[in-house]
Design goal:
Blueprint: H1 3-8, E1 10-11, H2 30-33, H3 42-50, H4 53-77, H5 81-84, E2 88-94, E3 99-104, H6 115-124, E4 137-140, E5 152-161, E6 164-174, E7 203-207, E8 210-211, H7 213-220, H8 226-254, H9 256-279, E9 284-294, E10 299-311, E11 314-319, H10 335-350, E12 365-369, H11 386-406, E13 423-430, E14 436-439, H12 474-480, E15 483-489, E16 507-512, E17 519-524, E18 546-550, H13 554-559, H14 568-574, E19 580-584, E20 588-592, E21 598-601, H15 617-625, H16 631-637, H17 651-667, H18 672-679, E22 716-717
Parallel strand pairs: 11-12
Antiparallel strand pairs: 1-22, 2-3, 2-6, 4-5, 4-7, 5-6, 7-8, 9-10, 10-11, 13-14, 13-17, 15-16, 16-21, 17-20, 18-19, 18-21
Length: about 725
């Protein structure tokens, strides 16, 4: 990076920043993961010279349509809940293994699962015991080799033309069970990778366009749901065939050089467009920090700060001052996954409109992820909730990205973070079709969107990780999973308030199936603290602990003809049902789940944008009429004076009330130096800091600065 980075960023000696902290192991070479785009080949250079801008645009559209069609095929063929609802990815890669176009519900899949292709090329292609041939089929789910966590399973196929490797097809997503100690793969109590089920680096599972029966039998035998596993593996392979057929048809029509050169052109243009966008943003240093409270096996604070240094056409993303790696649970990310997670924000907002999303867009971005830490953790630790951990970087990017974009011509992309306050149950048991089903439901794809600079956030916007997902049909999920969904809807007072409010999530209430084998585990965080900050004075989306009502009398009340409101707000505020109300950490190991047990869950709400006292009273009335807020929120938070019916606002009364609230705010104000003096004396209870590191800076025993990240006395500056 140029001058700003050199003058203002101090990195600690003795730590790893620009790669994963672990070394080579069987099937894993971290050097391949952080290598970036491979050099341009001769055939790519000749092919690019053949294409004018119109030809390149048409080919880009054609390649994109191939993977988008593949996405639809994969989702239609799968019987795994995650895939059906869009937790998946279909892609075309260069012959060297770089991602070119993807059809996906998950943006960060775009930048993952390609290092395995490079591993095949580096170590297996010329190995006489493995080799590489047309019709080969590979499988991998090893997160250390460049993946996410071992529940995300991928298959890949090389594409040859006249004996030469010209591309790769790849298909995969969240399949579910891994044979871990907890049904469904997510094992919140796992302390090492060996408790999380099977991990396979790139393994050839088929040759000559056929799966090997012995390998399929072996893999199916490692999980609780072999029928689902085998069916989904076959659906991936069928989708690979479709991508290959469509791709080779384009080679026949356009010539191999034009297609291969066009693929490289996509990557080149991606980098060029990203650099052009960066030049339109003011230079500066932008910061955000998140704290987490629940780590699978313990409550307690950990911290993940992020600094973005933007200068000219370059962006550096620095994560340091991070809490140590977690030895007591699976909240650990890796360098490559932390990097990829930032693309969830960058591709959707910061680089908005620069399509297709591909690896070229991140060529101007450098990453420095402090390790060992919870964001760049050693290989032997559990990584099953790496998808939760890496999202700390995503949420921080929402905050720093909004600050960068606000002063630019791209202000329309400014948005408070979309919700990732997960509290997600995993149900396991015999489903109504007679086989063992274990997975999460589709409501995970319906989190609240953040408030925007000119409008409210969207309700039940979609999956946190990507824009193209679906919550699925309740009746179908009732068949595939061993529980019964009783209701779905938008709840009251369940979003970040603001001039423009955040979106409310899809709240789901489910009942146990009554089968003796039915079990439920759950995973998440944000039980006491939120990740869904508000922007420019907007309220944050609320925390989201797990709510279970054991031995409820709901069935009796329904049989008696009663109408019971099954919203989280009503259930907790009024407790209309009999039973044991249990509010706990969202990460729990598998427990029996009976037919009178209820679980109330969502993936949380988006933060608000702007001062609540600037919200149009008519919008407050509309929220009240829609059941999104209660009267006390309208009056006490938004400062709106209502008539007796609660349907009209008194304009003069509202202005008086808001003026009084503003005066109360000013009366509570303090001089900055006074605030800092008292703030530096504050310290959380010792028990909350057990996994935090040193307070307030995890790496430093003594730290007396008013702000985090100023390492003048403790860090060693490195260029």
């Amino acid at each position: 990076m140029p001058d700003l980075f050199d003058r203002h960023v101090a990195l600690f000696d003795g730590l790893v920043y620009d790669r994963d902290v672990y070394g080579r192991r069987p099937g894993v070479d971290p050097a391949l993961i952080c290598r970036g785009l491979e050099p341009v080949t001769d055939i790519e250079r000749r092919g690019m010279a053949l294409l004018n801008d119109v030809d390149a645009d048409i080919l880009t559209h054609k390649l994109s349509s191939i993977v988008e069609e593949a996405r639809d095929v994969y989702m239609a063929l799968s019987i795994s809940e995650g895939i059906i609802t869009g937790d998946m990815n279909c892609g075309i890669f260069t012959a060297a293994g770089d991602p070119v176009v993807v059809g996906t519900g998950i943006y960060f899949h775009t930048l993952l699962n390609n290092a395995q292709l490079k591993y095949i090329l580096e170590y297996y292609r010329d190995d006489p015991s493995v080799g590489l041939a047309d019709g080969d089929i590979f499988f991998f789910n090893e997160e250390l080799a460049g993946g996410i966590h071992n529940m995300d399973m991928f298959s890949a196929m090389p594409i040859f033309w006249e004996g030469e490797l010209v591309a790769w097809a790849e298909v995969g997503g969240h399949q579910g069970d891994t044979g871990s100690i907890t049904p469904g793969g997510f094992a919140p109590t796992a302390k090492s990778r060996y408790e999380e089920g099977f991990h396979m680096p790139a393994v050839r599972i088929g040759r000559g366009f056929r799966l090997r029966r012995d390998i399929l039998d072996y893999m199916s035998g490692t999980v609780r749901n072999p029928l689902v596993f085998a069916a989904d593996l076959k659906s991936r392979v069928a989708t690979l065939f479709q991508i290959r057929r469509r791709f080779l048809r384009e080679v026949e029509r356009r010539g191999v050089e034009a297609v291969v050169g066009g693929m490289r052109r996509v990557l080149v243009r991606g980098e060029e467009n990203a650099r052009a966008r960066l030049r339109e943003i003011d230079d500066g240093i932008f910061r955000s920090v998140l704290f987490n409270d629940d780590h699978g096996t313990f409550f307690g604070l950990t911290r993940v700060p992020l600094v973005a240094v933007k200068e000219d056409d370059r962006l550096a993303v620095v994560l340091q001052g991070v809490s140590p790696e977690n030895h007591e649970g699976p909240f650990n990310s890796s360098w490559h996954l932390t990097r990829a997670a930032t693309a969830v924000y960058l591709f959707s907002y910061f680089f908005r409109g620069l399509l297709p999303a591909n690896a070229g867009l991140l060529e101007p971005v450098s990453y420095y992820v402090e390790g060992p830490s919870m964001m760049n953790a050693p290989d032997e630790l559990a990584h099953g909730l790496a998808n939760q951990t890496c999202s700390f970087a995503t949420q921080n990017m929402y905050m720093v990205g909004a600050k960068m974009l606000f002063g630019s011509e791209h202000r329309e992309a400014v948005q408070a973070p979309q919700s990732r306050n997960y509290s997600l149950p995993i149900f396991g048991g015999i489903n109504r079709r007679g086989y063992y089903g274990v997975n999460f439901g589709g409501s995970t794809n319906a989190g609240g969107g953040g408030g925007r600079y000119d409008m409210d956030g969207e309700h039940a916007l979609g999956f946190y990780w990507g824009p193209w997902t679906d919550a699925g049909e309740v009746e179908e999920q009732d068949e595939r999973l061993p529980h019964l969904i009783l209701s779905r809807g938008l709840d009251r007072n369940f979003h970040g308030f603001g001039k423009y409010r955040g979106g409310t999530p899809l709240l789901e209430v489910a009942m146990g199936c009554g089968d003796a084998d039915c079990a439920m585990s759950s995973w998440g965080s944000c039980d006491k603290l939120t990740f869904n900050y508000g922007l420019f004075g907007g309220y944050a989306g609320p925390p989201n602990p797990r709510l279970v009502i054991r031995n409820s009398d709901l069935a009796e009340r329904v049989r008696a003809g009663e109408d019971v409101e099954l919203g989280q707000y009503a259930l907790l505020a009024e407790k209309p049902l009999g039973g044991d109300y249990v509010v706990t950490s969202s990460s729990k190991d598998a427990e029996g789940f009976g037919e009178n047990d209820l679980v109330v869950h969502s993936v949380g709400a988006g933060g608000g944008y702007g001062d609540v006292l600037e919200r149009d009273p008519e919008l407050v009335l509309a929220d009240l009429a829609d059941g999104l807020i209660t009267r006390d929120v309208a009056e006490k938070i938004y400062g709106v004076a209502l008539d007796d019916t609660g349907t009209r606002a008194d304009e003069a009364g509202t202005e008086r009330r808001r003026t009084r609230i503003r005066k109360d705010r000013l009366a509570k104000g303090r001089k900055f130096d006074d605030f800092v003096r008292d703030w530096k004396k504050k310290r959380p209870p010792a028990g909350a800091l057990e996994k935090y590191g040193n307070w307030p800076e995890p790496r430093l025993e003594i730290y007396d600065e008013p702000f985090w990240g100023l390492y003048r006395n403790g860090g060693t500056r490195r260029g």
